[in-house]
Design brief:
binds S-adenosylmethionine, Rossmann fold, 255 residues
């Protein structure tokens, strides 16, 4: 598994480098995020967890595996002039040093603390966060159970951890254990029942708040993009992923 995680992390770094450092113009590659898009991404993520910006005013909000912007950038941009109610934001990612030095979207500030660290050993004290988000990360980590136990540890009593990740669609569930050999970006491929059981073993109550089809967030993975793309193999792989994966959003409550 460690080899898979290292390999997946290397791919993760190359993915972001292509967008922000090499500024690749390929039709299948994402474009750099704008201020408006960062706010929309944060708003959409909160809404899928049945939350809105008002809910997080003056709260402590952590984003574990935040990537180069996560929901932190959008929340910070949204509250930019609202000093009184700005949430305190915490970002954790094992690629944080690369994200801050080579990409430069996230910066340590009075209301933002950033850590180069894995979710399996979060350098934050127990029960210190009102909201802990972990967006599209649990299927990327080295040890999902350890990471979920850490999300639970840093969530305050009465707080919520919002966890979202790709899961395997029912049709492909029988093949979930072999998918990591085909889809090497994800070291883990959970079914809904397996991840629900794992998350429930740490939190007092969990609820599924949203389920998204891949095409809802990535319309460029659609079948017709195969014809437009210069990299047909990648476009076919991306289209296949729309059949195999979907995204689940959990609100995990700690009493
Ligand atoms: C698909 S990206 C998602 C980034 C961000 N959450 C977003 O939604 O834009 C997965 C992120 O998980 C991070 N990651 C991988 N292994 C991790 C671990 N063990 N602990 C915490 N984050 C991890 C990667 O470095 C990467 O930034």
């Amino acid at each position: 598994m460690a080899k898979n995680w290292d390999e997946a992390q290397q791919k993760e770094k190359v993915f972001w480098e292509n967008i922000y450092v090499h500024k690749s113009k390929d039709i299948n590659t994402y474009t750099p995020i704008t201020t408006e898009a960062s706010i929309s991404f944060a708003q959409k993520t909160l809404a899928r967890h049945k939350l809105c910006f008002q809910d997080i005013c003056s709260k402590v909000v952590a984003d574990i595996g935040c990537g180069p912007y996560g929901i932190i950038l959008g929340i910070d941009n949204y509250f930019i002039n609202n000093y009184d109610v700005k949430p305190k934001l915490i970002g954790v990612d094992p690629l944080m040093d690369f994200y801050t030095s080579d990409i430069g979207l996230l910066k340590q500030k009075d209301n933002i603390q950033l850590y180069n660290s894995q979710g399996e050993a979060i350098p934050i004290i127990d029960s210190s966060c009102d909201y802990v988000f972990c967006v599209n990360v649990i299927d990327h980590v080295e040890n999902p159970a350890k990471c979920i136990s850490e999300l639970h540890r840093i969530t305050k009593n009465g707080g919520v951890a919002g966890i979202s990740l790709h899961i395997v669609t029912p049709l492909f569930s029988p093949f979930s254990s072999v998918l990591k050999y085909l889809d090497t970006n994800h070291p883990h491929h959970f079914t809904l029942s397996k991840i629900s059981k794992l998350v429930s073993s740490y939190f007092d109550r969990i609820e599924v708040t949203y389920m998204a089809a891949m095409l809802e967030d990535q319309p460029e993975f659609a079948f017709n993009y195969i014809f437009k793309s210069s990299d047909k193999i990648r476009a076919i792989k991306r289209w296949s992923s729309t059949l195999i994966l979907r995204t689940v959003y959990f609100n995990c409550h700690k009493n």
